[in-house]
Write a structure and sequence with these properties.
571 residues; Glucose Oxidase, domain 1; Enzyme I, Chain A, domain 2; TIM Barrel; eight-stranded parallel beta sheet; 16 strands
């Protein structure tokens, strides 16, 4: 038996035969046409585009019935297909540069794919996958090749692939696909999102997978630990049959907690909120008590121009109206360095995570910052808005950001434009300097939210996107827990709201520790609601405090994880 290890992104136990999925290869040769052939190439391009749109319409209709919350992925693909800028560039390639239609499509799409692929932020890096998917569909239709998919399989299967596009997972045979394993992809990829939605076990990021594993062999996938077991013996198979049965019963039981009020056994109320990155609220949003992180970057990343004040106003307004009285924490533009926009040229930086990004970039481009703040404040009359600054490293940063808000409020007053007078101004805690100065910040800000992804990265000087140093990214380290304790204690003593919106906030293994540290507000992806609420309702806050003391006294991350897992094992 051979065991390969990857990143578990959708928990579960799968048993079945390996099916190596090799989709259509969209590679094309550098081909040109004669001037008199351009009209035919344009016609071929338009025909392929219409065929691709028809396929996407079919996928959208299918997904709307099967999983309505995920259908928007294919609407987004249609939007890419109909993008006016890319359409003009492709037609120019054919008509002016005399490119063959497939070469023009590959060239233009390739430019944007490269741009998004180079970005460090996983949310935007995954956008390259959307572009690749649409590019492949386009070129396949140009070549007149029928679509291959995973819609019809004959037995229990574990699908292996270099990567899976959203269209691959959308048409998946849910009766026979027990698990998904890929070489590429991250926890925010569409493959991960749809696998979670379907309840399919998934492990991503196993390097050399397609070369290592033979097709058709029996395998076991443990997507709770990230292990793929090739050709397991009878004893292992029997063991995992039992584990799978136990897991399915546990998952069914956990889902009962999705809408349960999060109150510990000794009466401590924990507010559970959600993180969003779109104007479309996610599945299970009705169970969120607030939005702890509204990422506004999507408005800029999904546009071919700088979003206007009114475009932003309408987006923010729609979220506020949808949430009603529930608080919405809008994070101001977090872009720059690694997140680049083709319509906003920025200089190359050797260390983009340490560069001119987020609030720093907004200070450098006051016009962009002012436009966003005007839109946000105008929208504030339609709901319960809070404004939060990312990448704050000093009191000077926060004060400068707050002064910008106050200056916009004066402008709106002078123009007679209404805004909510009680908009709270807060900040992200994601730079260690803030943790060291937490008491000073707590005295000035209205609230704060801890971004554990970047805080861990900066605390341990480790690139969280670099797989070669993943072992050094230790979000469960006692060093990290002590840092969190210092932040939370300072804000609690000052009587200021403090929440957490990083990935640790939605990790059920960390929930008891966070409660024990005195945190009463957690914001996460809605997929984590049930598991975290189950933990909260099954513990006593007083005993969780004892756990927090124990983990802070530990020496290693492994010890912290053992203590945390043992504490919730009975729940």
């Amino acid at each position: 038996m051979t065991i390969l290890q990857g990143n578990p992104v959708s928990p579960g136990i799968a048993i079945g035969r390996i099916y190596k999925y090799i989709p259509f290869d969209p590679s094309v040769a550098e081909t040109f046409c004669a001037p008199e052939e351009t009209e035919a190439q344009v016609a071929a391009y338009q025909t392929a585009k219409a065929s691709a749109r028809a396929e996407l319409d079919t996928l959208f209709a299918h997904m709307s019935k099967e999983n309505p919350e995920k259908a928007g992925i294919f609407q987004a693909h249609t939007d890419i297909l109909d993008d006016e800028v890319m359409d003009e560039e492709i037609l120019a390639g054919i008509q002016s540069a005399y490119m063959a239609a497939d070469y023009a499509v590959a060239t233009v799409f390739g430019t944007y794919i490269d741009m998004f692929s180079q970005m460090e932020d996983p949310l935007f890096k995954e956008r390259a996958m959307d572009l690749q998917d649409v590019q492949s569909r386009f070129i396949r239709n140009l070549h007149g090749i029928e679509e291959r998919n995973l819609s019809s399989l004959s037995e229990a299967t574990i699908v292996l692939a270099e990567d899976l596009f959203p269209s691959d997972t959308a048409t998946i045979d849910r009766q026979h696909v027990m698990g998904i394993v890929t070489e590429l992809g991250g926890s925010t990829s569409h493959s991960a999102i749809i696998a979670k939605g379907y309840g399919i076990a998934a492990v991503l990021g196993i390097e050399g997978l397609m070369e290592t594993v033979p097709d058709g062999v029996q395998a076991v996938l443990d997507a709770t630990t990230g292990a793929l077991m090739i050709a397991p013996d009878a004893e292992t198979l029997a063991e995992y049959e039992q584990k799978r049965e136990t897991f399915l019963k546990e998952r069914e039981y956990t889902q009962k907690f999705i809408g349960v009020e999060a109150i510990t056994k000794d009466g401590v109320k924990i507010d559970v909120g959600m993180n969003i990155g779109s104007v479309k609220l996610p599945e299970h949003q009705e169970h969120a008590e607030f939005i702890g992180l509204f990422r506004t970057e999507f408005l800029y990343m999904e546009s071919d121009h700088m979003p206007t004040e009114n475009e932003q106003f309408e987006a923010y307004k729609s979220i506020l109206l949808a949430m009603g009285d529930r608080p919405v924490t809008l994070r101001t533009l977090d872009i720059g360095g690694d997140k680049k926009l083709d319509y906003w040229p920025m200089p190359h930086e050797e260390n983009p995570f340490l560069g001119n990004r987020a609030l720093r970039l907004c200070f450098a481009r006051e016009d962009v910052f002012t436009t966003q703040l005007r839109a946000a404040l105008r929208a504030s009359v339609h709901g319960n808005l809070q404004i939060m600054f990312p990448m704050v490293g000093s009191l000077e940063d926060f004060r400068r950001g707050k002064a910008a808000v106050e200056a916009v409020q004066v402008e709106l007053d002078q123009a007679g434009i209404p805004y909510a007078p009680n908009v709270k101004i807060g900040m992200m805690v994601e730079i260690p300097s803030v943790a060291l100065f937490a008491d000073k910040f707590a005295a000035e800000v209205d609230f704060a939210s801890i971004g554990t992804n970047d805080l861990t990265q900066y605390l341990f000087a480790v690139d969280r996107m670099n797989p070669q140093v993943v072992e050094y990214y230790q979000e469960f380290s006692p060093i990290m827990i002590r840092t969190l304790a210092q932040i939370i204690t300072a804000f609690n003593q000052a009587g200021k709201p403090i929440s957490i919106c990083g990935e640790l906030g939605g990790n059920a293994k960390a929930t008891a520790i966070l409660v024990g540290l005195g945190l009463t507000k957690l914001s996460m992806n809605t997929a984590s609601f049930a598991a975290c609420r189950r933990v909260i309702t099954g513990i006593e806050a007083s005993k969780a405090k004892d756990l927090a003391e124990q983990v802070m006294a530990a020496d290693t991350e492994a010890e912290v994880k053992q203590l945390a897992e043992a504490f919730i094992a009975h729940i």
